[in-house]
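U., I forgot to send this yesterday:
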Amino acid sequence: MAAKNGKEETRVLIVDDHPVVRYGLAQLIDGQKDLAVCGQASGISEAIRVVQDSKPHLAIIDISLQGANGIELIKQIKALDKSVKMLVWSMHDESLFAERALHAGALGYLNKKEAAETILEAIRQVLAGKVYLSPRMTERVMQRLMQGKPADGLPTDALSDREMEVFELIGRGMATREIAESLHLSPKTIEAHRDNVKKKLGAETNAELVRRAVQWVLQDSQET
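Result:
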């Protein structure tokens, strides 16, 4: 891709499982004088290929990807090329996933509901090597990650990133088939994740699992 205005542009990779969403974000980024989208991907393998071939400076990554989890992709990119800065851009509640994303290697977390100006602000802050979080999350995450305060030791800490996705969606009232469609997985796979979550959390019935998931989503959102 040619440089803009005679200057080398900052290369950005967009990883999202919705083509229309990728297109809109790409239009916003390519409209900037110093930024250019060097590739798009819907899943992990495709994203890794773009990282290897195009050497992006920044990867913007959704949590839910085709057949995979965005946090796993963050870990893989970090292992492959530590110079790539990463920003999570997702509909998932940051109070549930921001800390996991930062632990994995991302520098920021942004909700898709934010305005275009906020997205560009987050992109530039992460490119500058600074952490970007919403004001409501900053104090909480800084206390845990920057000041060395221990985590709450909640049972959900034992859940994998994918299990945490499923647990959150259960808490938001989604049925197994709806979760499967949302995460591009089979209902059978979602049921397996539900069973694992039940075991890890010590929930004896599906009703108890749902109750605890709803309670967790409400409580964790209220904390921030």
